[in-house]
Design brief:
Blueprint lengths: L6 E2 L43 E2 L7 H10 L7 E5 L4 H13 L2 E2 L2 E3 L8 E4 L2 E6 L4 H11 L3 E5 L6 H11 L3 E3 L6 H11 L3 E3 L5 H16 L8 E8 L8 H12 L10 E3 L2 H8 L9 E9 L6 E9 L2 H20 L5 E2 L1 H27 L1
Helix pairs in contact: 1-9, 2-9, 4-5, 6-7, 6-10
Organism: Brassica carinata
Pfam family, one: DapB_N
Function: Catalyzes the conversion of 4-hydroxy-tetrahydrodipicolinate (HTPA) to tetrahydrodipicolinate.
């Protein structure tokens, strides 16, 4: 195929990273098979036509396509949403229900919530406390052998829950932040179960973070001397600074910007959020607004990066995508066991690129 304006797929990996970057909060710790990304500017310079080169992981198509079809909603996959009484848990149940995924009527919560029934999307879900978790999980897993647990509980429960899933052998998607993350990975690695672990489930936000990482790696010092202002607004219940903001700032630091994390302007007052930040009143209790403003040393140049999220649907939909992704990996008996949202994004990109290339091939065959 000529190197003009074609979208080319090759059996390698696109936008993968090398090593274990401690700064990247959504990076998995092993078996990433990562490599440098690159943009090609080959072709006739006079025509100024820039070829776009994508690469994708090659797959045995019959097996791959069979696995894709087998994990479509309604094909045996069930999820158990732990933390179903929380706002994120309820949002995930709604997204899963809309996608046609089977939701088991069982969930784990705190001791105070034990015995309660939570109704979401017309489904009544019984909440079980800490003392009966192992027996309940084993029973549910026996009834639903293709069960995947989704965890949106509290930071203090992360490691205990991971230990439980690992002991019973239930694969899981961990959306809860906090806990001892090194211990979390070690637990899953030791048990050799499948898991998607990511404190940021919004695929588009993850894609933005990945793009920032690539820019920082390929153009270190590009913003040397620039000053940075960062403002982030979240619901009043979030007391600490956003991990996403910290990840973006660390990229700017690699790009040459001097900035202390303590300088982040945290907006938690509802009145300021509405009047100053522009948060819709109906989303004051659940939003994530981020603004990064860069200014040149002589103040003649400025750049702004902004991403605003209202509600929780972006995270809930990403979680359901992670569930279906993990189910497919389990069906394929993939060697890699621990994944993150970059893996989920990469898989979707590869599938879409494959579809596009087939269309190009069909078009080219008909024209030939």
């Amino acid at each position: 195929m000529a190197t003009t304006n074609w979208l080319v797929a090759s059996p390698s990996v696109f936008l993968h990273r090398t090593g274990n970057n401690p700064r990247l909060p959504f990076a998995s710790r092993k078996n990433q098979n990562l490599g440098k990304s690159s943009v090609s500017f080959l072709g006739n310079p006079k025509r100024r036509r820039l070829p776009v080169v994508l690469s994708m992981a090659a797959a045995e198509e019959p097996e791959f396509e069979g696995a894709v079809k087998s994990v479509l909603p309604g094909n045996g996959i069930s999820i158990m949403v732990n933390g179903c009484s929380g706002k994120m848990g309820k949002a995930v149940i709604k997204a899963a229900d809309s996608a046609g995924v089977n939701i088991v009527p069982t969930s784990f919560g705190s001791a105070a919530e034990a015995g309660q029934t939570v109704e979401v999307c017309g489904k009544e879900i019984t909440v079980h406390g800490p003392t009966e978790r192992e027996e309940v999980l084993a029973s549910v897993f026996e009834k639903h052998p293709e069960l995947i647990a989704v965890d949106y509980t509290v930071p203090a429960a992360v490691n205990d829950n991971a230990e439980l899933y690992s002991k019973v052998g239930v694969p899981f998607v961990m959306g809860t932040t906090g806990g001892d993350r090194n211990k979390l990975y070690e637990t899953v690695e030791r048990a050799r179960i499948y898991a998607v672990i990511s404190p940021q489930m919004g695929k588009q936000v993850v894609a933005f973070l990945a793009a920032m990482e690539i820019m920082a790696e390929q153009f270190p010092g590009a913003f040397s001397g620039y000053s940075l202002e960062v403002m982030e607004s979240h619901q009043a219940s979030k007391l600490d600074a956003s991990g996403t903001a910290k990840a973006v700032i660390s990229c700017f630091q690699d790009l040459g910007v001097s900035y202390d994390m303590d300088q982040i302007q945290l907006i938690r007052d509802p009145k300021q959020q509405v009047e100053m930040v522009g948060v819709p009143e109906e989303h004051v209790s659940g939003h994530a607004f981020h603004l990064y403003h860069l200014t040149s040393p002589d103040e003649t140049v400025s750049f702004e990066f902004q991403h605003n999220v209202c509600g929780r649907s972006i995270y809930a939909e990403g979680t359901v995508d992670a569930v279906l992704f993990l189910a497919k990996k389990i069906r394929l008996k993939a060697d890699q066991r621990i994944y993150n949202m970059i893996d989920v994004l990469r898989e979707e990109t590869c599938v879409e690129a494959s579809k596009f290339c087939r269309c190009v091939d069909n078009w080219w065959f008909q024209k030939s």
